[in-house]
């Protein structure tokens, strides 16, 4: 039961029955309804001589006593005193509204009253096909031998191609690495006791070294500028807390990783403004589009705090070149905003292109470094999502100071740090691992893209990531999001493969799908292609 | 050019309180038996180092647990890829059974109601996010763990309103204190969402009595609010009266499956009971499906490493080991505790009678130059810089009476503890001689100043809180 960087809905989780927040109009206002049903006919009955007075006083009095009864049942709240009885029907309407609200709290058994508004929205089952697909695939996972008719998982960007290398290293080096002290004796205090909550210095040094190695040693990372977190998920949330207040926004080029909608918005109250990229430009990021989005936001009164880019891009798999990075920096400086560069796939490259990190640009130029922050992690490049290691790398000392303190809510487990310090320091092994994994990813990419091409499905030219961005727009009918989701559904139910539809990634053009191929074995590729073919031909 | 968020720029993290300044001083001049024998001894860290040998021998005898092997087979792949926010089932099962064992098996827990988090710090914050909206409040009995000011309030926007407890009844929670706190919150226009207690208490080191627990259940029933019971020290109870969990009290009152039952949540961790704070393992236990659901998803921001989960699942399933560890550990804590209180008694310093935890709540009121928090700070600084001991002043724990200090005893060797006691004795002996001469002179002045400074302090305390909002 595995996940990508984003969480998915478990099967066992019951649907939260009362996820709707209580509506002030009293949709469930039993009390209000009953009151009205009593009052209106009463007023009719006492129409006539003195009827107007009687007709108001009687229901008014009844209502007063009704409110008194409710007040006794309800838990005391000083601001919500029931309004005094009156004869105007307009105020009766107000009374009925507050009566229904008090009904809700006096019942005491309604879900929304017990938990916070934040928890309410989070507890709701997620309707995105991204999560639904992940869940379905995990319920009936494909296995070449044990479950050949199961669902093939192409919606999770996980790299399983080179785990064997890591496994071998661990089995050969573990004892020495985990708690073996210099004298060979077990020394648990190194892992049991409280460690710096933003990561041990040795771990930071090892991770900084790994980042440099994995990005081609063209740039070096300073360990003192790292804050370690339990995965890239908390890293990005922590950065949001540091850079933005509730209601502020980040510009995010589309299509983007569906998990950002949760990770960045859930608890921070931050907004994401999509900046659409198109296939005509190969989904390249344009500063003009950013500028437009920024100005529109300003007109709406929304404060933009920064841009979030993923480089290499998820879900496209392309990389930003130096010129684009420079223009991004210029734009950020002009608008006085931050740049968050999510570089978690930096080591998973397979083309001839070299990856260029934001850090590399800043090293070589005299740019305003305070506004650039990098996210990294070991879940993709080192295939260890279970170990929970993420990185915030920043040139801004204030951000680092705040992030360090926030890291206490998401610290990396000490025994895990110990093992990784050992492994990452074995630079020869790491070099071999990086090269091997690149070869394997490339092999899979070539085979998979070729297989899709045979079916007439083209992929965007990509050189990194664990997936391809496939154009199935010719296969959808109608040519819109509905058509796309129908195809996604067919692929899942009939083809028994789970892929991520572009709409889940906020792609503005329908028909694109992200297909991850690094969870498969080479032998599985023809099976996938055949299954897609089956669906395509129906 | 304001580049950072408000949360990052203001000091609402509470990191500037004395509690943390003492730590900084310690870092600069840490005691070391050989290399720095005159350095500051850390007595402000509630860490348990007394039973490492037990853990080490278990690890040595169970290499497969740390070696990613199950029944001799490598399960590395499975663990490397495991990031399910529901947690490793084998680990959750072992953990709830361990929790039950600590409660004498009087209560049993359902692993599906347990949410794993990266430490109790993360668990407490997550529960706040789940139960309260920004601007709402939780009531906490004083004195309380200084870290709560940061963990419960910082990112959540939730407020803390103190339930004032006093030494007159051993700092127990009373009905009137609860009501007062509730009224205080109302005066401040804060909607109270619940009460949070730490049982056993940090910093008092006492288990919460059955009477207090019943009082709390009555209170939350009447007000329709939540109760969070932070029970991370439940396994460190070394003396009578034994530990009574809130769950036990609910069971005794036949509250299972009632509305109140769903509003009681437990926070747990292996940092204190098992002495493994570095592992970052915490948990939320709740009978409310919505809370479990929301907390589970929020745990994405603080998952426990799969390697750690597996290792602990094997360790906690070894019931022989856990039983022995818990009882042996409690024995050692009791002995250390005794060492500290008798050493202090020899110096004429009393401690609050306690039966749990990794610290004592020490009464140094008689050493204050005046019954004020300024005097407490003065004394604390003297103890930090002259006596070279880092202890936690009561004011950092929001204690209403000056002169109380939390002193930890489980994070050092016996020799170091002895040295610390010697240093205290020397300090008290030397200062008593000088004080005796001055005290008669001071006492008249003090009476008049007492009520004035109390008032002043309360004002400044409120201001501090306001700036932290």
TrEMBL record, chain A:
PROSITE patterns (UniProt xref): AA_TRANSFER_CLASS_1
Key word Membrane present: yes
Keywords assigned: Membrane, Pyridoxal phosphate, Transmembrane, Transmembrane helix
Region (Disordered): 1-32, 76-111
GO BP of this protein: amino acid metabolic process
TM regions (residue ranges): 51-70
An annotated Gene Ontology molecular function: 1-aminocyclopropane-1-carboxylate synthase activity
Aminotransferase class I/classII large domain boundaries: 153-532
Record-linked InterPro entries: Aminotransferase_I/II_large, Ethylene_sulfur-biosynth, NHTrfase_class1_PyrdxlP-BS, PyrdxlP-dep_Trfase, PyrdxlP-dep_Trfase_major, PyrdxlP-dep_Trfase_small
Feature: compositional bias, Low complexity: 86-111
Family matches, as Pfam families: Aminotran_1_2
Record-stated family: Belongs to the class-I pyridoxal-phosphate-dependent aminotransferase family.
Protein name listed in UniProt: Aminotransferase class I/classII large domain-containing protein
Species for this entry: Vitis vinifera
TrEMBL record, chain B:
InterPro entries registered for this protein in UniProt: Aminotransferase_I/II_large, Ethylene_sulfur-biosynth, NHTrfase_class1_PyrdxlP-BS, PyrdxlP-dep_Trfase, PyrdxlP-dep_Trfase_major, PyrdxlP-dep_Trfase_small
Pathway assigned to this chain's UniProt record: Alkene biosynthesis; ethylene biosynthesis via S-adenosyl-L-methionine; ethylene from S-adenosyl-L-methionine: step 1/2
Cofactor needs: pyridoxal 5'-phosphate
Record EC number: 4.4.1.14
Catalytic activity entry: S-adenosyl-L-methionine = 1-aminocyclopropane-1-carboxylate + S-methyl-5'-thioadenosine + H(+)
Domain Aminotransferase class I/classII large, residue spans: 41-424
Keyword field: Ethylene biosynthesis, Fruit ripening, Lyase, Pyridoxal phosphate, S-adenosyl-L-methionine
One GO biological process term: ethylene biosynthetic process
GO MF, one annotated term: transaminase activity
PROSITE patterns recorded: AA_TRANSFER_CLASS_1
Origin superkingdom: Eukaryota
Similarity remark: Belongs to the class-I pyridoxal-phosphate-dependent aminotransferase family.
Protein's UniProt name: 1-aminocyclopropane-1-carboxylate synthase
């Amino acid at each position: 039961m595995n996940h990508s960087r984003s969480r998915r809905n478990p099967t066992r989780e019951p649907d939260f029955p009362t996820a709707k927040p209580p509506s002030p109009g009293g949709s469930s206002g039993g009390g209000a309804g009953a009151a009205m049903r009593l009052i209106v006919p009463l007023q009719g009955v006492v129409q006539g001589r003195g009827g107007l007075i009687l007709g108001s006083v009687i229901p008014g009095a009844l209502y007063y006593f009704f409110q008194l009864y409710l007040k006794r049942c309800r838990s005391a709240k000083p601001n919500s005193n029931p309004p005094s009885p009156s004869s105007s029907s307009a105020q009766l309407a107000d009374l009925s509204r507050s009566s229904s609200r008090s009904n809700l709290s006096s019942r005491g058994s309604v879900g929304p009253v017990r938990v916070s508004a934040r928890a309410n929205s989070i507890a709701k089952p997620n309707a995105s096909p991204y999560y639904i697909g992940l869940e379905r695939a995990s319920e009936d996972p494909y296995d070449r031998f044990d479950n050949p008719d199961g669902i093939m998982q192409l919606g999770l960007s996980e790299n399983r191609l080179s785990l064997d290398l890591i496994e071998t290293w661990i089995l050969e080096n573990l004892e020495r690495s985990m708690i073996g002290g210099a004298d060979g004796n077990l020394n648990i205090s190194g892992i049991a006791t409280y460690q710096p909550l933003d990561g041990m210095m040795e771990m930071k040094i090892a991770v900084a070294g790994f980042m440099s190695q994995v990005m081609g040693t063209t740039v070096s990372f300073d360990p003192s500028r790292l804050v370690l977190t339990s995965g890239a998920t908390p890293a990005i949330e922590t950065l949001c807390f540091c850079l933005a207040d509730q209601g502020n926004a980040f510009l995010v080029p589309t299509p983007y990783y569906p998990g950002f909608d949760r990770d960045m918005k859930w608890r921070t109250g931050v907004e994401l403004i999509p900046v659409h990229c198109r296939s005509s430009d190969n989904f390249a990021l344009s500063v003009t589009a950013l500028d437009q989005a920024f100005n529109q936001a300003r007109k709406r009164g929304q404060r933009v705090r920064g841009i979030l880019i993923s480089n290499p891009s998820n879900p496209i798999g392309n990389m930003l070149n130096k010129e684009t990075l420079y223009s991004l920096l210029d734009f950020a400086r002009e608008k006085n905003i931050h740049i968050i560069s999510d570089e978690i796939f930096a080591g998973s490259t397979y083309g001839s292109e070299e990856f260029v990190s934001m850090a590399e640009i800043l090293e070589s130029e005299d740019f305003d470094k305070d506004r650039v922050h990098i996210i990294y992690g070991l879940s993709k490049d080192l295939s260890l999502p279970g170990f929970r290691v993420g990185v915030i790398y920043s040139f801004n000392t204030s951000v680092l100071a705040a992030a360090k303190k926030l890291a206490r809510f998401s610290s990396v487990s000490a025994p895990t740090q110990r093992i990784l310090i050992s492994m990452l320091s074995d630079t020869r092994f790491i070099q071999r691992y990086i090269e091997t994994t690149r070869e394997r990813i490339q092999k899979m990419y070539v085979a998979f893209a070729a297989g899709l091409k045979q079916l007439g499905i083209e992929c965007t030219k990509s050189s990194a990531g664990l997936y391809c961005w496939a154009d199935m727009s010719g296969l959808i009918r109608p040519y819109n999001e509905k058509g796309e989701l129908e195809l996604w559904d067919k692929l899942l139910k009939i083809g028994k493969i789970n892929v991520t539809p572009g709409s889940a990634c906020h792609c503005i053009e329908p028909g694109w799908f992200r297909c991850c191929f690094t969870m498969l074995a080479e032998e599985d590729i023809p099976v996938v292609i055949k299954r897609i073919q089956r669906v395509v031909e129906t | 050019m304001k580049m950072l968020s408000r949360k990052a720029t203001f000091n609402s993290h509470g990191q500037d309180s004395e509690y943390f300044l003492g730590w900084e001083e310690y870092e600069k001049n840490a005691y070391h038996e050989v290399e720095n024998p005159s350095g500051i001894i850390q007595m402000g860290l509630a860490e348990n180092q007394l039973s490492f040998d037990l853990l080490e021998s278990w690890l040595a005898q169970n290499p497969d647990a740390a070696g990613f092997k199950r029944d001799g087979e490598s399960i590395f792949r499975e663990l490397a890829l495991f990031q399910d926010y529901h947690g490793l089932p084998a680990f959750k099962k072992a953990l709830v059974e361990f929790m039950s064992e600590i409660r004498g098996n009087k209560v049993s827990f359902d692993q599906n109601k347990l949410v794993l988090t990266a430490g109790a710090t993360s668990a407490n914050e997550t529960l706040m996010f789940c139960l309260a909206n920004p601007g709402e409040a939780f009531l906490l009995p004083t004195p309380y763990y200084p870290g709560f000011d940061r963990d419960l309030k910082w990112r959540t926007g939730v407020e803390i309103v103190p339930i004032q407890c006093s030494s007159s009844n051993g700092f127990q929670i009373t009905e009137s204190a609860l009501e007062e706190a509730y009224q205080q919150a109302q005066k401040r226009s804060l909607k109270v969402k619940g009460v949070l207690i730490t049982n056993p208490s940090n910093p008092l080191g006492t288990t919460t009595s059955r009477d207090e627990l019943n009082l709390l259940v009555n209170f939350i029933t009447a007000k329709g609010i939540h109760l969070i019971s932070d029970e991370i020290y439940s396994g460190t109870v070394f003396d009578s009266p034994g530990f009574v969990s809130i769950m036990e009290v609910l069971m005794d009152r036949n509250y299972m499956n009632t509305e109140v039952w769903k509003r009681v949540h437990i926070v747990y961790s292996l940092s204190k009971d098992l002495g493994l704070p570095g592992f970052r393992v915490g948990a939320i236990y709740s009978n409310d499906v919505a809370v479990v659901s929301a907390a589970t998803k929020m745990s994405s921001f603080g998952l426990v490493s799969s390697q750690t989960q597996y290792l602990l699942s094997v360790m906690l399933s070894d019931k022989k080991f856990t039983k022995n560890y818990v009882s042996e550990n409690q024995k050692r804590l009791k002995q250390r505790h005794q060492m500290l209180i008798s050493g202090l008694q020899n110096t004429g310093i009393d401690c609050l009678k306690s039966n749990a935890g990794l610290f004592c709540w020490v009464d140094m009121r008689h050493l204050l130059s005046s019954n004020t928090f300024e005097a407490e700070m003065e004394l604390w600084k003297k103890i930090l810089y002259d006596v070279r001991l880092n202890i936690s002043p009561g004011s950092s724990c929001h204690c209403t009476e000056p002169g109380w200090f939390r002193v930890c005893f489980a994070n050092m060797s016996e020799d170091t503890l002895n040295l610390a006691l010697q240093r205290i004795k020397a300090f008290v002996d030397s200062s008593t001689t000088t004080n005796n001469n001055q005290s008669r002179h001071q006492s008249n002045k003090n009476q008049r100043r007492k009520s004035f400074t109390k008032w002043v302090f309360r004002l400044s305390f409120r201001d501090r809180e306001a700036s932290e909002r």
